[in-house]
Amino acid sequence: MNGTGEARVAVYIDFDNIVISRYDQLFGRGRFNRDKVRVADNDEADLAARIERATVDLGAVLDFASSFGTIAVSRAYADWSVPINAGYRRQLVERAVDLVQLFPVVASMKNGADIRLSLDVVDDLFRLADITHVVVVAGDSDYIALAQRCKALGRYVVGIGVAGSTSKALAAACNEFADYDALPGVESLPDPAEPVSENTTPVVAVDSSKQRRQSERTARRLLTRALELGAAKNDEEWQAAGAVKNQMLRMDPTFQERALGFGSFSEFVKSEGSLVELDETHPSRRIRLRPQGRKA
């Protein structure tokens, strides 16, 4: 075990999953395959522009992972002979990420990344007892069992996936789940740069204001429930902000104040001033429900 008590992080990237999901997020579900990006000639101007626009900032992913502790293991799984994947090799190698080569095993081009990645994770956890955090960059429901296994082995599991392409069950199976779009340093979604056929529905064309209102309502209910549970458990109205946020993450690992447009948890709490009170004079920044916010 790590005698220093320092958190040590293992990062595993299902590369195809994150790249395909980002492309489809921008240009419509299934567009990556319809555009034949994996085998297409990237000299085609329109396609090259779309690929460039959908580039994943893996530096932002690794920086986020490093916020949990020292990165001790980092691997990315893909067929690195594919042109779109090869374009990322330098970026990954410069960040000391091991590139695991996977060749397609069936005609559908599936490369079995989920199986290989999962086997490597479990093997690493038994070999490297000082790993405290496991970060899985993928949104596929195939990783639910892996997340549950890692938690059973006493590790803190963090998932990272692209909004709109992530299994809700996977997010719930993790201790914490982050949308790629909300990671610090990731640029916000650009406006569509090309006409979209009526059969294609990119995420950016969805009514974002409606989605935001729904997210705000969900976060408000989560905050209320966390405060109610804390008050019932400790028999105290005032709850430490850190404890409240941790309870919210236990109930919904997808909660992120940044995804709602706030730079900190305190900013989010302040925005709910009609519902809660925030005492910033206390060392732990205490929160409590206002009387009208409590259940009768």
From TrEMBL:
GO terms for molecular function: RNA nuclease activity. Coiled coil: none annotated. Gene3D superfamilies: 5'-nuclease, LOTUS domain-like. InterPro entries: LOTUS-like, NYN, OST-HTH/LOTUS_dom. It comes from the Bacteria. Residues 215-293 form the HTH OST-type domain. This is NYN domain-containing protein.
